[in-house]
Write a structure and sequence with these properties.
A hairpin with a 2-residue loop joins strand 6 and strand 7. The protein contains eleven helices and 13 strands. The strands form three sheets. Strands 1-9-8-5-4-2-3 form a seven-stranded mixed β-sheet, with helices on both faces. The protein is of the alpha/beta class. It folds into two domains: 224 residues, 3-Layer(aba) Sandwich (Aspartate Aminotransferase, domain 2); 121 residues, Aspartate Aminotransferase, domain 1 (Alpha-Beta Complex). The protein binds pyridoxal-5'-phosphate (PLP). The site of pyridoxal-5'-phosphate (PLP) has 15 residues, from helix 4 and helix 5.
């Protein structure tokens, strides 16, 4: 009997992802080395223009990480000590860290079944100290922006979108990062548009914010010699901007491939007892930075997949309110039941443009096998 050899499928393979565009990337890097404007060179501005255009905002400012994008967004809106910012406990740690680093206090609300901010819980958290709302478009699925915007308007709160995982995602035909006062994106190597290193970007429409954010990312400097405020060095490297400009040309195609994989996973895994699939609101367009299933016996499933050479990850296994860093925020286990339950069930399956159809089928077959559905 001929046995088919099963392929090892990593959760992600960043080196492989770059093979087909390597020459273009090297050419872009070469141009930067030749012109020598390594700090805030022409590629940074060109990237910012292009990024603002894809988000549908007047401005985009490149910074050195998604974390700094969040910190600078909060600072640009004057948020700091004595203020409160409402966010969710199931995000990458950076969302809450950014709030704490400004001196403000994070206030959490629980999430819905898709892991997104539950707007019905917001009213109970708002008080006279609340200054802003910081929802997270987790996995690349947009939050309920109509309700979130209405809530911000009612209580006169700033709206900052953590769109780190959601470049090109749409809510009712509008791109995320364009709904609130400021959108914050990460260009980390694991993101859907990724630098070859760290990077981030802020998007917004207000011209006054533009001047301020330019200074905030560059030591508070108004020009070479005059500093207007205290700030740090958060600039996006010219080299990374050059790399990102190359990748931007492929972003729509890569995003479409991610969506194709997600829809194919949905079809292939539909109906398995013990497995819940991501639900995309029909008025939204998700970009599937991650493809997250809710799985009964999740740890056993992950182990089963691993034994077959299939990588998977958990985004995120420890809710932020239960992190050691959060011990002074006053929360305890049980405060956010949906988020805490999700942390036990969620599993992110491989999803990237280069994932082959056969590999995806192999993953689905292994999952069906695990649940005894063969
Ligand atoms: C939801 C979310 N917010 C913020 C960040 C922080 O971005 P960075 O790693 O670029 O600092 C990330 C990514 O890592 C993220 O996934």
């Amino acid at each position: 009997m001929i046995q088919t050899i099963k392929e090892t499928i990593p959760y992600v393979d960043l080196a492989a992802e770059h093979v087909s565009i390597k020459d273009e990337l090297l050419e872009a890097v070469k141009r930067v080395i030749e012109h020598g404007q390594f700090i805030l060179g022409p590629e940074v501005e060109a990237f910012e223009k292009a990024f603002a255009q894809i988000c549908g905002t007047n401005y985009a400012v490149g910074v050195n990480s998604g974390t700094d994008a969040l910190i600078l967004a909060l600072k640009a809106l004057g948020i700091g000590t004595g203020d409160e910012v409402i966010t969710v406990p199931n995000s990458f740690i950076a969302t809450t860290a950014a709030i704490c680093l400004t001196g403000a206090q994070p206030k959490f609300v629980d999430v819905n079944e898709q892991g997104l901010m539950d707007p019905s819980l917001l009213e109970a958290q708002v008080n006279e100290k609340t200054k802003a709302l910081l929802p997270v478009h987790l996995s690349g699925l947009p939050c309920d922006m109509n309700r979130i915007k209405a809530f911000c308007k009612k209580h006169k709160l700033f709206l900052i979108e953590d769109a780190a995982q959601a470049i090109l995602a749409e809510y009712q035909g509008q791109r995320v990062g364009s709904f609130g006062d400021i959108g914050c994106f990460s260009l980390h190597p694991l993101k859907t548009l990724n630098a070859c290193g760290d990077g981030g970007v802020l998007t917004f429409n207000n011209p006054e914010l533009y001047e301020k954010i330019l200074m905030l990312r560059n030591l508070g400097l108004k020009n070479r010699d005059q500093a207007i405020l205290w700030s740090s060095n958060s600039r996006l490297d010219t080299m990374q901007a050059a790399i990102l400009l190359v990748k931007l040309r492929y972003l729509a195609e890569w995003t479409e491939k991610r969506r194709e994989h997600a829809l194919a996973y949905n079809q292939s895994l539909n109906g398995i007892e013990g497995l819940k699939l991501p639900q995309e609101d029909p008025s939204c367009l998700g970009v599937y930075h991650t493809y997250v299933v809710r799985a009964a016996r999740r740890d056993a499933l992950q182990e089963y997949l691993e034994k077959q050479g299939i990588g998977s990850k958990i985004h995120y296994p420890i809710p932020i309110h239960l992190q050691e860093a959060a011990k002074d925020l006053g929360y305890k286990r049980g405060d956010f039941p949906v988020c805490e339950r999700e942390a036990q069930n969620i599993l992110s399956l491989p999803i990237y443009p280069d994932l082959k159809e056969e590999q995806r089928e192999q993953i689905c077959a292994a999952i069906r096998e695990f649940y005894g559905e063969v």
